[in-house]
Amino acid sequence: MPVRRNLIGLTREELAAELAPHGIDGFRLRQVWHWLYHRGGRSFPDMTTLSKPVRALLEANYTVDRPEVATAQLSNDGTRKWLLRFPDRQEIETVHIPQEERGTLCVSSQVGCTLTCRFCHTGTQRLVRNLGAAEIVQQVMLARDHLDDWPSAEADRAITNVVLMGMGEPLYNFDNVKAALQIMLDKEGLALSRRRITLSTSGVVPMIRRCGEEIGCNLAISLHAVTDEVRDELVPLNRKYPIAELMEACRTYPGVHNARRITFEYVMLRGVNDSDADARALIALLKDVPAKVNLIPFNPWPGAPYECSTPDRIKRFSDIVANGGYSSPVRTPRGRDILAACGQLKSASVKKRRSEIIAEEAAAAASG
Ligand code: SAH
Ligand code: SF4
């Protein structure tokens, strides 16, 4: 049996090239696209506007498979987390956060992360690989299946916003992230709005301009510290791209202006980056940048080397930044009970593997 190719994750151009040899082009090609991404069709026989021979041809050669769901969890605040498993057994997590006026899907861009921010659980994961464009798009497809969010309606969608804030550093997987976002933005398909897609980066300076020029989505910067000394410690990538270079890339981010500000994420770590002086230095740093600040209470994970700042400290920090002229809401942690909050994502398979490794090491030590 020849392996059937999955059509999910092909860009329009790739889909056209794939189906042209079968004589599917023009209007029929658009119909297929519509079924894949507007209707979310999960099997070719269901795609009833296509002729029977076309359906049979597609069925014989292709799939519209979603990744396997290893586990699905529902938090008591409505947040959902899916642990998805790809055919090579690698796993990633996707999180849905329902809010009053919107629904946000937090998508992963890599299995694990090559960076090692000290406060981030994903950064402790050893196995790393990039996700393909298909695997990024599939996260949206699967979430919409589970949330009963088809077809791509104008209003009342379960997923209105997508944030690349799951596992991985999206700017280290630029081409696949870009292709996936192009598919998500297609008006005749998933039809997400560019203004409602946010890419979060720990500060891969050379890729920031390309992100603005070639993707044009909102940008979030994981700043977390106001001096190179502290940021070198928290976000080791800072040693390569220090704060001054990062801020310069932000000042010149294509399309940035007051109506479209850059979000600066700042994780509140007790006694590390949360003093009044830090808050004032943050205001100074943001001078001339159309910016808003998102204060994230540190989400602890087992064995984490930090504690979250006290609520009073966070409030005081937020007030100082707000008085300096920058909106600085404190992000309410969501899905903490199912370890779905920011920075807690780490796939279970690797945890299992690590425990296997520990067991193996113990066995080796005992026998040696
Ligand atoms: N790699 C990208 C995107 C994924 S991380 C980045 O670093 O921006 C998404 C956000 O969660 C980042 O702002 C990250 O700094 C933050 N984060 C990581 N670990 C956290 C934790 N334990 N508590 C709170 N926020 C955390
Ligand atoms: Fe990677 Fe982002 Fe975590 Fe840093 S915070 S280790 S860049 S996922």
Characterization of this structure:
- It contains 11 helices and 13 strands.
- It folds into 2 domains: 5-63, DNA polymerase, domain 1 (Orthogonal Bundle); 68-338, Aldolase class I (TIM Barrel, Alpha-Beta Barrel).
- The strands form 3 sheets. A 9-stranded mixed sheet has the order 3-4-5-6-9-10-11-12-13, sandwiched between helices. The chain has a two-stranded parallel ribbon with strand order 1-2.
- The protein has helices spanning 12-19, 26-39, 52-61, 133-146, 174-185, 205-215, 228-234, 243-251, 276-285, 311-323, 348-367, and strands at 5-6, 62-63, 68-74, 80-85, 91-98, 103-106, 110-111, 129-130, 161-164, 197-201, 218-222, 262-268, 291-297.
- It is of the alpha/beta class.
- Residues 117, 119-120, 165, 169, 200-202, 222, 265, 267, 296, 298-299, 342-344 line the site of S-adenosyl-L-homocysteine.
- Report the CATH C-level class of the largest domain: Alpha Beta
Compute the number of structural domains. 2
**CATH architectural name of the largest domain:** Alpha-Beta Barrel
What value does the Rg take, in angstroms?
22 Å
Summarize the structure.
This protein has 368 residues and is an alpha/beta fold. The chain has eleven helices and 13 strands. A nine-stranded mixed sheet has the order 3-4-5-6-9-10-11-12-13, with helices on both faces. A two-stranded parallel ribbon has the order 1-2. A two-stranded antiparallel ribbon has the order 7-8.
Keywords:
alpha/beta, DNA polymerase, domain 1, TIM Barrel, 2 domains, 9-stranded mixed β-sheet, 35% helix, 17% strand, binds iron/sulfur cluster
